[in-house]
Amino acid sequence: MQDKELYQQILGLSSPWKVTDADLDLASSEIRVKLDHPRSTKFCCPECKTELPCHVHAEECRRRHLDSCQFKTIHIATQPKVF
């Protein structure tokens, strides 16, 4: 099993999200997991619940997840915006 597949399962991600990279940084004791979605993905508007195409993304954000094997696990992704 590859690192990306392993973290896809560990994080319990489902479509459209997928792990595009998993990088181990021994110096900082971190595992950085990059998440992305296909460009044609539609997301639900948080207000009207209509499914809309993603036009822009917020800045890249980093969120800490539960540790993996005593390493800090960091999610890195851009949040899609619909309007």
Description:
- The chain is mainly β.
- The chain has one domain (3-81).
- The protein has 1 helix and 6 strands, in the order αββββββ.
- Strand 1 (18-25) and strand 2 (30-36) form a beta hairpin.
- The longest helix is centred in the N-terminal third of the chain and has 9 residues, at 3-11.
- The mean pLDDT is 89.
Principal-axis shape equals elongated
The biggest beta sheet is recorded as: 4 strands, mixed
Q: Kindly report how far apart the N and C termini lie.
A: 38 Å
Range of helix content: 10-25%
In order across it, which strands form the biggest sheet? 1-2-6-5
Write the element-wise H/E pattern from the N-terminal end onward. Answer: HEEEEEE
Query: Mean of the pLDDT scores?
Result: 89
Low-confidence stretches: none
Radius of gyration: 14 Å
Number of strands: 6
In short:
The protein has 83 residues and is mostly beta strands. It has one helix at 3-11, and strands at 18-25, 30-36, 42-44, 51-53, 56-68, 71-81.
Sum up the structure in keywords:
83 residues; mainly beta; four-stranded mixed beta sheet; two-stranded antiparallel sheet; 1 helix
Topology, element by element:
Blueprint: H1 3-11, E1 18-25, E2 30-36, E3 42-44, E4 51-53, E5 56-68, E6 71-81
Parallel strand pairs: 2-6
Antiparallel strand pairs: 1-2, 3-4, 5-6
